[in-house]
Amino acid sequence: MSAARSEASRAAVSAPAGPTGTADLPFEKALEELEGIVQRLEQGNVPLDESVAIYERGEALKRHCETLLQRAEARIQRITLGADGRAAGTAPLDVA
């Protein structure tokens, strides 16, 4: 395991769970920590109490990442064109 992954795994146990422990994390750091948690849980050699604690932390990180992605999507807009072909404004980007 790399030093970064090892640090992310340790942080997953020591960092507080819930929104207050994730509010200041940028997306990339939250995702990295979440990947470390998944890796540890998949290995299956974590005691039950610790597994529950890091699973809960993982859930908080997942919600945080989803919120950040939704905010980013809301900021993306498309340029609308008028009848003359010139930019007339913006509208929400329809990604569906």
From TrEMBL:
Main localisation: cytoplasm
Function: Bidirectionally degrades single-stranded DNA into large acid-insoluble oligonucleotides, which are then degraded further into small acid-soluble oligonucleotides.
SUPFAM superfamilies registered for this protein in UniProt: XseB-like
Positions with biased composition (Low complexity): 1-17
Entry keyword Methyltransferase: no
InterPro entries: Exonuc_VII_S, Exonuc_VII_ssu_sf
GO BP: DNA catabolic process
Subunit (UniProt): Heterooligomer composed of large and small subunits.
Cellular localisation: Cytoplasm
Lineage: Bacteria, Pseudomonadati, Pseudomonadota, Alphaproteobacteria, Hyphomicrobiales
Gene Ontology cellular component annotations, sorted alphabetically: cytosol; exodeoxyribonuclease VII complex
Keyword Nucleotidyltransferase (UniProt): no
Catalyzed reaction equations: Exonucleolytic cleavage in either 5'- to 3'- or 3'- to 5'-direction to yield nucleoside 5'-phosphates
E.C. number: 3.1.11.6
The entry's keywords: Cytoplasm, Exonuclease, Hydrolase, Nuclease
Protein name as annotated: Exodeoxyribonuclease 7 small subunit
A GO MF term: exodeoxyribonuclease VII activity
Family: Belongs to the XseB family.
Disordered: region residues: 1-24
